[in-house]
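Extended Data, panel c. Modelled sequence:
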Amino acid sequence: MSRQHIPGDLMDRYAMGALQGEVLAEVEEHLLECPACQAVLTDTDEFLNVFRAAAVQTDARPAVARRAFWPVGRGVWATMTAGAALAAGTAFMVLTGMPRPAVSLPPPLQSDPGPQ
């Protein structure tokens, strides 16, 4: 490997500590002699450090950005959830053929016959 540069995927695995045995020895020997691959390794290490630091952060966005994404209050969400549950229940009753509850209507209005 001393004549050719280390391929990117092999360099990534070396930087993550995933190489073993003869391949590890060859990569380390090449890195001792090749300033170009040393520079690539430095860049790879910096990238991995930034990536690892970002991976452990739970949420890097400020609270204002999250609020702008969900501008509606809890009352609206509760109303929407109740409406969705009502619609789902009605659809279930219609699709399964469940009898609908009886509804009593008031008697029809009598038209006024006027003076007789």
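The two ends are 117 Å apart (CA to CA). This feature is highlighted in the accompanying rendering.
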